[in-house]
Write a structure and sequence with these properties.
The complex is a heterodimer of chains A (about 120) and B (about 110).
Chain A: E1 4-7, E2 10-13, E3 19-25, E4 31-38, E5 42-51, E6 54-57, E7 65-70, E8 73-78, E9 87-94, E10 106-107, E11 111-115
Chain B: E1 3-5, E2 10-14, E3 19-21, E4 24-26, E5 32-39, E6 46-52, E7 60-61, E8 64-69, E9 74-79, E10 88-96, E11 102-104, E12 108-113
Parallel strand pairs in B: 2-12
Antiparallel strand pairs in B: 1-4, 3-9, 5-6, 5-10, 7-8, 8-9, 10-11, 10-12
The chains are: A mainly beta (about 120), B mainly beta (about 110).
């Protein structure tokens, strides 16, 4: 079984609709992240969470919100989807390393979102 | 802000040959991490190799090795004995020490020819 799962894997929605992307992990990591991937731009960080009570904005948080329901679950919401939010969305997790810095990030399989 | 540049949008290599993918980055920090991730058609992001900036020795993982040039801010990935399964998008990434904001390059698409 995959350590980091994302649902749905693919989604088509219409402009103005609310949509939620979900991420679950069985790695026992405290830290979770949401990225979006656009062609030619690589991955960009939307939000990240150090634990259930800690949420932080990333590079491109406008138009998105998140919820950390439990250590293992981190959801991303688009309150009113717009076409330029069409992208591939990745969830990732990491643990706190011995150095005090987060170690390697492990990614889910991605959710492809199309906003019409 | 830190930026990561991959100057080769596409590369190709013959099976069993060696290929090097380039990556440069911009930072004023002295402590940081560098990563190479592979993204095959399945879309999964898979860690290939990681380098800590304070380590002078280049990281190696089986057929994958890096050439880390700190002064030049260069972090290239060498794939030896290329295999068909190596065909994928490869992303270089930078993360400042003790910071969770990881910055990715735009990627290099690697094709492996049989």
């Amino acid at each position: 079984d995959a350590d980091v799962t994302q649902t749905p894997r693919n989604r088509i929605t219409k402009t103005g609709k609310r949509i939620m992307l979900e991420c679950s992990q069985t790695k026992g990591h405290d830290r979770m992240y949401w990225y979006r991937q656009d062609p030619g731009l690589g991955l960009r960080l939307i939000y990240y969470s150090f634990d259930v009570k800690d949420i932080n904005k990333g590079e491109i948080s406008d138009g998105y919100s998140v919820s950390r329901q439990a250590q293992a679950k981190f959801s991303l919401s688009l309150e009113s989807a717009i076409p330029n939010q069409t992208a591939l969305y990745f969830c990732a997790t990491s643990d706190l390393g011995a150095s005090g810095a987060s170690e390697t990030q492990y990614f889910g399989p991605g959710t492809r979102l199309l906003v019409l | 802000a830190q930026t990561v540049t991959q100057s080769q949008p596409e590369m190709s290599v013959q099976e069993a040959e060696t290929v090097t993918l380039s990556c440069t980055y911009d930072t004023s920090e002295s402590d940081y991490y560098l990563f190479w991730y592979k993204q095959p058609p399945s879309r999964q992001m898979i860690l290939v190799i990681r380098q800590e900036a304070y380590k002078q020795q280049n990281a190696t993982e089986n057929r994958f090795s890096v050439n880390f040039q700190k002064a030049a801010k260069s972090f290239s990935l060498k794939i030896s004995d290329s295999q068909l399964g190596d065909a994928a998008m490869y992303f270089c990434a930078y993360r400042k020490y003790n910071n969770n904001d990881m910055r990715f390059g735009a990627g290099t698409r690697l094709t492996v020819k049989p």
